[in-house]
Amino acid sequence: MIRFIIFPAFLCLNILSLTAQTVQQRLDSLFQFLNTDSELSGAFLVVDSGKVIFEKYLGFENSEKTNKITSNSRFELASVSKQFTAMAIMQLEAQRKLSYEDDISKYFPHIKFRNVRIKHLLRNTSGIPEFLAWAPQWIDRKKINTNQDFLKVIETKIDSTLFKPGNQYAYSNTNYLLLALIVEKVSGQSFATYMQQYIFKPAGMENTAVFSARSPNANLKNYAKGMAYDAKTKRFKNVDDFPAFSYLTYFDGGSGPYGISSTAQDLFKWNQAIQNNTLLTRQNFMKAITVDTLNNGNSIKMAGLYYGFGWLFTDSTNSESKMHFHTGGYPGYKTINIRDFKEQKYFIALMNKWNTIDVYPLTSAVNAILQKRKTPVIEREKLTGAIVLMEFQIKQLLGTYEYTKQPELKFKITADDDGNLFAQLSGQSAIEVYPRNDLELFYTAVQAELKFSKENDQITALTLYQNGQELKFNKVK
Question: For the segment 173-207, what is each residue's pLDDT rounded down to a tens digit?
């Protein structure tokens, strides 16, 4: 049985005449166009010269559409949480309770590797492997694990770093998990208590907390649950309803790299607190957005952007006016907090629905409007339907595939008892993929697709298409 979906492949936006429209009107037009299908869901706030000039709340807090998104809606910040964790470390450093040069063995004497310093954790140059990609057997998947649980695995399973600390940049959430643990050891408080007492409360962030949504007795009032598009049922569902996202539960007790929930209004207060030196002096905060170098003298960069203490930036100077930001992505959530010291311009976007729009083109459009330029064209992400494959068609796709230029990089295609297909790239979790036809699979978690090659009725290879790249993997078993 073949199931098709009738849905706009994408929505194109090209804002109409710029004349006779205020900035607020143009921003409102932007979001109206993007929400033509009423599937955009999130909180959006634009600040200019330190004042809120536009805010928009769209969609619902859950897939049942019973609670609308409001100014009180709390979202998982995902990696935007890292700037808060870094702030806690910077506060303790300013009080001389720790040093960026401290070897982390000072705080974790049972780890087996050495020469990792706090500064390496902050800038993702430690070489410590990503804990979200650990072997499944290392994690107790029957409970909600905490930072302490993850630390025990690090102490017993990680013998060495992937490279000499400081030699490379490699984004790893483990770094910020360890930073949160250092905050606890130095302050003598839980990470949640420290953040509440020394960051959230002083900044006036009344609706922000270190938060585990899946923990017993969690207060889910005003909590925006993450949603993703299900190509089979042709609708958005809560991410917890997807088998591929089961790891969300057993990783839900972690904090530091993620695990903070907040509102758009509270992030505005956070930006103001940084601006007004409420939490840290300007001089000390500037260390967070100052360029540093690897052991070979090259600047520390992530995809062409300089990486600081939980912040990304493009300006290599030490100017206070430089723009800095961080994005966040976690199943169901896309977030960004971008700020400019000099102009006191901020853009905050908190979305609880995947498969609608990415934060980067949205930010570019908002920035163009603030600068009174023509708004660039924005394409909504494609929402496509899946077909149902026969058992023999599924079986022919299953197996292990090696990347031709890097054999240690492998793709595994598996299926569960219900015929659901999953693709797993080395070092990553298995993600559900959907058949467009018998030789093409597509993702809904990311914008990517897999196409299989066939010779003499046998599958011989697959090609990954993502971000304009084509990577071929040969089938080995």
Answer: 999 999 999 999 999 999 999 999 999 999 999 99
> Among all chains, which residue has been given the structure tokens 């166009």?
33
Residue range(s) of every CATH 2.40.128.50 domain in the chain:
391-475
Q: Can you name the residues that pair with 463 across neighbouring β-strands?
A: 451, 472
Name the superfamily (CATH) of residues 76-355: DD-peptidase/beta-lactamase superfamily (3.40.710.10)
pLDDT tens per residue, range 287-329: 999 999 999 999 999 989 999 999 999 988 877 778 999 999 9
In whole angstroms, what is the distance from residue 445 CA to residue 415 CA? Answer: 17
60: left (phi over 0), alpha (psi -120 to 50) or beta: beta
Residues of the chain with CATH 3.40.710.10: 76-355
Q: What's the rounded mean pLDDT across residues 28-43? A: 94
| Chain centre to alpha carbon of residue 172 | 12
Q: List Cβ<8 Å contacts ≥24 apart for 34-41.
A: 34/356, 34/357, 34/362, 34/378, 34/380, 36/11, 37/8, 37/11, 39/236, 39/353, 39/356, 39/383, 40/351, 40/353, 40/356, 40/357, 41/69, 41/224, 41/227, 41/351, 41/352, 41/353, 41/356
Beta-carbon neighbour count of residue 395 at 10 Å? 12
Mean pLDDT value of segment 214-224: 95
- 391-475 folds as Lipocalin (2.40.128)
Backbone angles phi, psi at 460, to 5 degrees: -115, -20
Cα distance between residue 49 and residue 275, in whole Å: 11
Other CB atoms within 10 A of residue 232 CB: 16
Taking the model in full, what pTM does it have? 0.85
Residue 465: other Cβ atoms inside 10 A: 15
Rounded to a whole number, what is the distance in angstroms from the first to the last CA of the chain?
A: 29
